[in-house]
Amino acid sequence: MMGNTVGSQRNLTKRQKGILIGTLFGDGCLEKNGKNVRLRIEHGLKQKNYLLWKYNELRNLVAGKPRLVVGAVDNRTGKSYKRWHFSTFSLPKLNAYWYKFYRHKQKKIPKDILELLKLPLSLAVWFMDDGYKRNDCNALRINTDSFNNDEQKIVQKCLMRNFGIKSKLHRKGEYWNIYIPNSEAKKFCKIIKPFIIAELKYKISLTP
């Protein structure tokens, strides 16, 4: 209880807001915890350094240190999924993001995405979470599987208006993703490169 009281007095810097927004478009999730909301961040073993980077950026908002979480054993493989995890305090300042990003407890593209997704830092964090370069060319994908086609079209408009990036919707299996074609990849990577951590530079390593 005391921890949440202390946490409720914490302010988010502009940089922390940028990271938060990118994380919410990506792998992060918000959880109702009593009156307020907390941010939950988890990444696999190979992305431990990335999680630690987020932890260090948000440290004043976090109660405990990152910890290794071991999931239930998969009956098909006999293996358990391990991941690194940390959560923030439950903060009144996060409540507004819950109402922006969640409808009926399901994550959605916010209606005010044009105002939210403005910083190159936010775009970089989203790409570090969910983006990758194709193996056969320089085209990039952002895994937006959980959003419907109408929402992804809204993302496309935002990328064009706020960053000057033209994108397409490409089908991958059953799902559609945001697709940055070869012609736009260099511009996109130039925008986010200053914010990509060393361990994830491979995601924007374009071939000549």
UniProtKB/TrEMBL annotation:
Stretches of the chain forming a coiled coil according to its record: none
Pfam families xref list: LAGLIDADG_2 (PF03161)
GO biological process assignments: Group II intron splicing; mRNA cis splicing, via spliceosome; photosystem I assembly
Name of the featured protein: Homing endonuclease LAGLIDADG domain-containing protein
Database matches in InterPro entries: Chloro/Mito_RNA_Process, Homing_endonucl, LAGLIDADG_dom
Entry GO MF terms: endonuclease activity
Domain of life (superkingdom): Bacteria
Domain Homing endonuclease LAGLIDADG, residue spans: 18-188
